[in-house]
UniProtKB/TrEMBL annotation:
Domain of life where this protein originates: Eukaryota
Residues spanning the membrane: 29-51, 58-80, 121-141, 148-169, 181-202, 214-232, 244-266, 278-296, 302-323, 335-357, 391-416
Organism for this UniProt entry: Turnera subulata
Listed Pfam families: Ammonium_transp
Identification of the protein by name: Ammonium transporter
Compartments (UniProt record): Cell membrane; Membrane
Keyword set, alphabetical order: Ammonia transport, Membrane, Transmembrane, Transmembrane helix, Transport
Length: 471
């Protein structure tokens, strides 16, 4: 805009020179709001959820793992990972490296059709990357060496998350074929598989912790879960990058599916175990949120309800029944059952999106792509082969994300283990937060003073049952 044209006007009457002609202020405002909501899911949402869902002696360490990851991923993202995930193609699974720091890049529009600045896109996608790593960390709480975690976060973002994001969302080899509206595969299947794999390499918690691991604060746990649920409004509502019809439908479907899944999970708990579990309700909430994510803006509400029923049934069965009977699942200590709540629910959501994706909604989201169609609509449109092919593409996308995360997460863990132990020492596992950080979540004796370590170890040998109840 030529400011000289308006130099004779009073400042209050001059056009806003800070706005580009292509930028839509409503879309920009919504995108900034949605991004903030996604960030709040991690900080404070998962910080509170993790800090309260573990036993008292691991509250500080668990919360801080999430807090650290959020900061570390942001630096990694702007320095290198954003371009690896969404830059120009270097190879079919990875973009050209580069930084996202220059003003010229950040104030440009994020695509040819975009109506928000690239800065919105970079920060929104960072929020997705950060929450993926934090979700993964839920599998590792209560025993991972914090120094190993500090190394794990950037390595996993660079070599695992970036590849999944570029392959399905960037300009990668699956981008034109796989339906993944807001991250059922890229985020949730990825975090669930990687978390389970990393848990195998890190090893289990202390044997007593694995058998007795009650949450230290149920009310705070619900507060953290509330941040996660409400923040998903931005998670799925921000994916179209405009305040339009798809965003509105995505938000509506998100909460509809989540409520259904929660009620199904609680009902199953009551029928089988004769009690309604608050922890179970939170797990059902999470599986509903995860399941609807890959199809939130491209399915009708009745399909969202069916997805909620499925996300309440199947992960409940794999977690509450299959997990307890399977030697395979018992051999890996997945602290917060991230595999079931994210990998299983994310896979289900991705496959069901291939069934229920409605053509006219797909066209709004993918205007240049005529390949996508939900299987159930393909028969009425005379495109049944395309519908069957779409399910095949969804399975292919899930298989790629699963295989890549198993391989790269294993390599990252093996590499880190050459320099630092992945798992804490046994003595530190006995003590918890005080041994790792010199801090404790709650003062339960001595008016806030901490028990010194030699005395604690002596008491642990004399009265283990009492001390274990305290920690």
């Amino acid at each position: 805009m030529d400011s000289g044209l308006y130099s004779d006007l009073p400042p209050a009457l001059r056009p806003d020179e800070s706005s580009k002609a292509w930028m839509n202020k409503a879309d920009n405002a919504w995108q900034l709001t949605a991004t903030t909501m996604v960030c709040l899911q991690s900080v404070p949402g998962l910080v509170i959820l993790y800090g309260s869902m573990v036993k008292k002696k691991w509250a500080v360490n668990s919360a801080f793992m999430a807090f650290y990851a959020f900061a570390a991923v942001l630096i990694c993202w702007v320095l290198l990972a954003h371009h690896l995930s969404f830059g120009d193609e270097m190879i079919p699974i990875l973009g050209l490296p580069g930084s996202a720091l220059s003003q010229g890049f950040l104030v440009g529009k994020y695509s040819l059709e975009g109506r928000v600045p690239m800065a919105d896109y970079v920060f929104y996608q960072f929020a997705f990357a950060a929450i993926t790593v934090i979700l993964l960390g839920g599998s590792l709480l209560g025993r991972m060496n914090f120094y190993a975690w500090m190394l794990f976060v950037p390595l996993w973002v660079f070599f695992s998350y970036s590849i999944g994001a570029f392959s399905i969302w960037g300009d990668g080899f699956l981008e034109k074929y796989v339906i993944d509206y807001a991250g059922g595969f890229v985020i949730h299947l990825s975090s669930g598989v990687a978390g389970f794999t990393a848990a195998y390499w890190v090893g289990p918690r202390h044997s007593y912790d694995r058998q007795h691991f009650p949450p230290n604060n149920i009310i705070h746990m619900l507060a953290g879960a509330g941040f996660l649920w409400m923040g998903w409004t931005g998670f799925n509502g921000g994916a179209p990058f405009e305040a339009g019809l798809v965003a509105s439908l995505a938000i509506y479907n998100t909460h509809l599916c989540t409520a259904t899944s929660l009620l199904v999970w609680v009902s199953l708990d009551m029928m089988v175990y004769k009690k309604s579990s608050v922890i179970g309700a939170v797990q059902g909430m999470i599986t509903g949120l995860v399941c609807i994510t890959p199809g939130a803006g491209i399915v009708e509400p009745w399909a969202a309800i069916l997805m909620g029923v499925t996300s309440g049934l199947v992960p409940w069965y794999t977690m509450m029944i299959l997990h307890r009977k399977s030697a395979f699942f018992q051999s890996v200590d997945d602290t917060l059952a991230v595999f079931h709540t994210h990998a299983v629910a994310g896979f289900i959501g991705g496959i069901l999106s291939g069934f229920f994706a409605k053509p006219n909604l797909l066209k709004m989201l993918y205007p240049d792509n005529n390949l996508h169609i939900g299987l159930i609509y393909s028969f009425s449109d005379g495109r049944h082969r395309d519908g069957i092919r779409q399910i095949g593409y969804q399975v292919l996308g899930a298989a790629f994300i699963t295989a890549w995360n198993i391989a790269i997460t294993s390599l990252v863990c093996i590499l880190i283990s050459r320099f630092v132990d992945l798992r804490m020492e046994e003595d530190d596992l006995e003590i918890g937060d005080d041994a790792v950080h010199g801090e404790e979540a709650y003062a339960l004796w001595g008016d806030g003073e901490r028990m010194n370590q030699p005395l604690r170890l002596r008491m642990n040998g004399r009265i283990p049952s009492l001390l274990r109840r305290l920690v």
